[in-house]
Amino acid sequence: MKPISSTRRGRIDGRLAAAVVLPVLAFPAFAETNVEIYGIIDAGLLYQSRTDPDGKSKTSMETSGLRQSILGFKGDRDLGRGLEGFFNLEIHYDTNNGRFHGTGDAEGTGTPFFRRQANLGLKGDWGSVTLGRQYGPALLAHIGTEPRAFKEQFSNLYAWAYNQYQATAGAPGTDRNTNNDVGIFFSNAIQYRNTVGPFSFGVLWSAGGQSGSTQKNSAWALGGTYTGPVILSASYQVIKDEQTANDNVRHGGLGIAVPFGDFTFKANYLNARNNHSNGLNVSNVNAIGVGVDWKWRPDNTATLAYYDNKDRLNSGDHTRNIVISNDFALRKDTTLYVQTAFVDADSAATIKTSIVAAGIPSVGHRSTLLNAGINFTF
After folding, report:
1. pTM of the predicted model as reported, rounded to 2 decimal places
2. What helix, strand, coil percent values describe the chain, rounded to 5?
3. Which CATH superfamily is domain 33-377 in?
């Protein structure tokens, strides 16, 4: 072996030094990526005065009375040129048993690990573009005008979800869309969002992924919110069948919220039309909610809400609901809540007119539900 000359040795030493130093110099670039772990843990007890089919009362431990229990990871990264990259990963689980929460995805597609979000995107002064599984803009538009802000129990979150479940969650060859999960989460989606003055909006499209068609299995949604002296909201979304490209779901909404001192008055209207894949209209549900928030102490907010949900094609599918609640903020990240719902369900009431997470408590009867729990965020 030839001896290494001093000149060559210098070149080699320089390369070794560069190999060691360059990763160290590159490390601050990684430090510019901000990553956050966050979550919600929510659990409580639920008493129900009547149950189907025997009409007896029931007491159970329930997850997510106020907000869903989640574990999430999010991050952002400065890319220069006025651009910022970001990502979101969000798991949905049940606190009472530690299991993954159920999914409204089409039959046979499995339970997603990151049910609520699995996406990345870019944002700048021009707005943001998000790619992947994500929240649709329609539901987001109405959070400030829905009487109970779409709380996980006793709100029209369920009229929203259940009216976009049955027409899209079937097995292959039936009514089905594999990009939709209860009209709230959308897979294979691209969404543009922006805020211009007091107006914020989003537009989303889910690619169908079907050969020879851009319409089959696709979905699109839009929603906007005006935040000024009053809050106004509007939305519309369409979910198309996997095989026929029929509009299996057409869903729209309007809302208003009016602050007045310690009170905020709210009204929200939702309409959902469900069709079979052959175009036959099977339901047309109007979901009307009105309510008022009263911040009677700095750490206490009471809410009174009334929901009247009815399927215009099936007169017996009708519920009337009164909800009374109070949220006590022990601190910003810890809330004790108590909420009562009085449900009057007609003789053919279904989940499509329900405000209760588990569906109609007792078909054809009046029932009372009381839920108390704790919500912890981190």
Report:
1. 0.89
2. 10, 55, 35
3. Porin (2.40.160.10)
